[in-house]
Amino acid sequence: MAQKPSIPKGTRDFSPLEMMRRTYMFDTIRRVFRTYGYAPLETPAMENLSTLTGKYGEEGDKLLFKILNSGDFTRGFTPDDAKVIAAGTETGGAPLNAMAARICEKGLRYDLTVPFARYVVQHQAEITFPFRRYQVQPVWRADRPQKGRYREFYQCDVDVIGTRSLLCEFELVKIVERVFGDLGINVTLKLNNRKILYGIAETIGHADKMTDITVAIDKLDKIGIGNVEAELASKGIGQEAIAGLRPILELSGTNTEKLARMKEVIASSETGMLGIAEMEELFSYIAAAGSTLDIELDLSLARGLNYYTGAIFEVKAKDHAIGSICGGGRYDDLTGIFGMPGMSGVGISFGADRIYDVMLALNLFPEEAGIATRILFINFGGPEQLASLRLLQQVRDAGIPSEIYPEPAKMKKQMEYANRRGIPFVVIVGEDELASRHATVKEMHSGEQQTVPFDKLSEYMQH
Amino acid sequence: MAQKPSIPKGTRDFSPLEMMRRTYMFDTIRRVFRTYGYAPLETPAMENLSTLTGKYGEEGDKLLFKILNSGDFTRGFTPDDAKVIAAGTETGGAPLNAMAARICEKGLRYDLTVPFARYVVQHQAEITFPFRRYQVQPVWRADRPQKGRYREFYQCDVDVIGTRSLLCEFELVKIVERVFGDLGINVTLKLNNRKILYGIAETIGHADKMTDITVAIDKLDKIGIGNVEAELASKGIGQEAIAGLRPILELSGTNTEKLARMKEVIASSETGMLGIAEMEELFSYIAAAGSTLDIELDLSLARGLNYYTGAIFEVKAKDHAIGSICGGGRYDDLTGIFGMPGMSGVGISFGADRIYDVMLALNLFPEEAGIATRILFINFGGPEQLASLRLLQQVRDAGIPSEIYPEPAKMKKQMEYANRRGIPFVVIVGEDELASRHATVKEMHSGEQQTVPFDKLSEYMQH
After folding, report:
1. pLDDT digits over B405-427, tens only?
2. pLDDT tens by residue, A334-372
3. ∠ CA(B286), CA(B289), CA(B295), 5° rounding?
4. In chain A, where are the structural domains located?
5. H-helix segments, B87-164
6. Which chain A residues touch B88 with a CB distance below 8 Å?
7. What is the complex's ipTM, to 2 decimals?
8. Domain B16-47+109-361 is of which CATH architecture?
9. Range A371-461 classified under CATH 3.40.50.800
10. Class of domain A16-49+108-361
11. Are the beta carbons of B7 and A43 separated by less than 8 Å?
């Protein structure tokens, strides 16, 4: 009957130590979101597949986890359906997808953005716009698992929808500053604007190929300018246009200098100039408020997702190479696909698992975040145990995480337990302590001992 | 392209107000767990179906949500397999289950107990025993949705494994007292012991039918003594034995009186007497510590799950009828099924969704728990907006949740927004305020206004 237990590949258990550290990280992020006036939202793990399918491109559709219908999932099947299934391996592709759609109505959410859009449309009558929400929940993708890439991972999204005000972009910049400031991670915030990218495409005579151009430019960091140019050529963009792109990608100088130079280059593009104006306004808010962030206007930043229409953001850790740890942007029509056009919004998503990895690598978790129990009471049984239980209640009532070893085991075993659990204080109430009504408090790290009157214990431990 | 968006039946969106209240509830529960020295654990939403299947009875197996294998899920299928699928509706049952098992390797977790047992066995080398953990995560069951019963709901479990000490049962009693005390819910804690139930079965000559007897007794509250007796008869238990059971079920008096009476009735059952001794020890701890809880020894309490072997718990709200809101017990062999026998543990599970319903019905959520943003800054645009942004940064830096209306809209519209969002304070920085460097703070509920110097605003708002 015994099975060797394991978990599905790409998923993880989080041990108490990992959970305490993750909790510290999530609490920090959530606290900043709340301080900035965003309210929490949660959506179900399962969405109807009709909500999810077609929102993440063909590749994304393949990565959706589908849930088998309950009960008789083959209800209504005909012999023809059976043939499709029997032929599965040979035919593959479309027939198999159609079959999956017949036996699965639901899927696990792939991100928090599409469920948010679905929520806004479904609940539009109850929502007060502009709607400011954050959402911290796991998402699931049937990606090939590899180092740093999981099939279940957390996203922390913060969005405001229902206003075109650039104060929202500014606010997100401040949230990035505060979250990474509070977590102790040095970061660079890269900014760009999709309208400027469109202006570039328009200027080089390929406004129709805006998507191909941004997808290619997005890879600049990873594959280099040569390969980006090759990809552009393969999409039917002429050599002259590609040559026109090069000086723009290689632009340098301060953010203000870059904007000024771009203004000349794409002067003929109305949309492009609108993008420039948006960035000038955003930078003016940042300049007025001041910022400790390293903020860089990066015209090669494109981001893959096609629903962005204005400012785009990306955050990288300076002291640990791991790719982007946070990103997002302005979208003008996220809810259109669900029948509610013209709702402009802007949001960013913090990649919790990568942020965790950065913090671990740079040793940024405070020691406190690894401590579950602060006090272990040694158990001597009998009347000493009863006295310890009373003191235990006293410190617990004062909110100090504490416990008693559940059995009067050998002292050595109990002390070992305290050490292995990383419990910083041990309280001893033996025969002598019971007689004098003074507890012995041992600080495990230094080995130092103090004698504390019973009725002063919680007060003493709070210092 | 527009779809009318909806979510799968039995699942829920949690709006900001619901989320803030749920967060208040979960934070309270988690804080108590931590204060009592339990450490957090999380396991993946998906488990291998081999981990879940066969752990919840035949009914439970049917309620597992199964996840379709990624890629070609019909890989290796033969024409015979296709026949099984084509015949689905007619044959149903076993062939269909076998088919589901071939196309689904993973399922969503059904509770937190089996994943906990799986975790303990899988990570036994790293765990310090006794292992004290809590776990707050959603679970999924393909139950028929109805009022108060969802397909996705949260459980809050707290367990200690690796010791038989009854101090653990005592600690869980105190946790129940503290959680419901902190939440403001008046409850009755019902206690019983599986060993006593076994003793009863043994005494009436049906030790072999212990399971049938406990399952039937468990329904006493719901179906009444007559129907319980009919069910017992249908299981082959003789009239004499059933008659022998009746005085036990109708036992009354104080907990001490009940224990004393039972001691006489089941004196011949060694296991039964062990159960009595356990309850006496547990009640002695409770008596020594004192408790504000209403604690009742209820010999008709059985609880359905068959893995309990000692004390069992159940909590009911006194002022709102909704069934059990918390329950659990001692299990001596939870991990045996995964190849690790003899690990005794005890735990309880708080039913978050029912507790939420009780709190809502009894109006127990503090007003504070419904407030996201405390201050809205009215936006007048221009230099007033810049001054407001500076003040906004001041109060945010002080940790006060606050925001500025993103556009210089009409005053009436901005005030309406504050009202609809339930924002308690509005700060006005108009032309006069800018000149005098004093902000006008309006308390929305009373309509009262105060004038506060710019540099004292966060200090003023913290009172």
Report:
1. 999 999 999 999 999 999 999 99
2. 899 899 998 999 999 999 999 999 999 999 999 999 999
3. 35
4. 16-49+108-361, 50-107, 371-461
5. 88-91, 93-103, 113-122
6. 72-75, 77
7. 0.93
8. 2-Layer Sandwich (3.30)
9. yes
10. alpha beta
11. yes
